[in-house]
Amino acid sequence: MEDTYKTIAAPSQAVYTEKRSKFLAFALPVRSVEEIKAQLEKYQKEYYDARHVCYAYMLGPQRTEFRANDNGEPSGTAGKPILGQINSNGLTDVLVVVVRYFGGIKLGTSGLIVAYRAAAAEALAGAEVVEKTVDEEVEVRFEYPFMNDVMRIVKEEEPEIVFQAYDMDCIVRLRIRRSMMPKLRARLEKVESLVFAEP
Known about the structure:
The chain contains 5 helices and 11 strands, in the order βββαββαβαββαββαβ. It has helices at 33-46, 79-88, 108-125, 147-157, 181-189, and strands spanning 4-8, 12-18, 21-29, 52-59, 65-69, 94-101, 129-133, 135-143, 160-166, 169-177, 195-197. By secondary structure, it is an alpha+beta fold.
């Protein structure tokens, strides 16, 4: 079961020049389409005087949610080569924006493809690539006397405690790497009084 994915740790940028056209490339770590929309708005406002603000993104550990946008460039000359660079690096949860300032000399479709690909590649090359795990959460409820049993399992299996409330009935929400969840659940199931809360 694949439970890791690669993304970038922090924003990175690069400048690529081709026949006086200037390509400003930005690689950004993102988690949602809402975040992507906000980032795109920011770049479109900031570079309002640019001829084109093209982009591509890839989201999710399974790398199934993606989009490429040419923003007025000939079809397939901007968004696709940018997305190609995200794919060739095997990245996800990443947005690459390339802003083009036209230099007065037409590049032609093959020239555009090369320029957008190179700009995106340079921005990604400058980013620190990190491997993250695909995590799952589980919420358990149990009676107070069984707190020690639950905490022993938590200490040994080392899930992240996302939420906890201790009263007559205790609630603990845990997050752990997907491949380790079956073992965690199996151990918790043995604790008396414990029930799994459906999220």
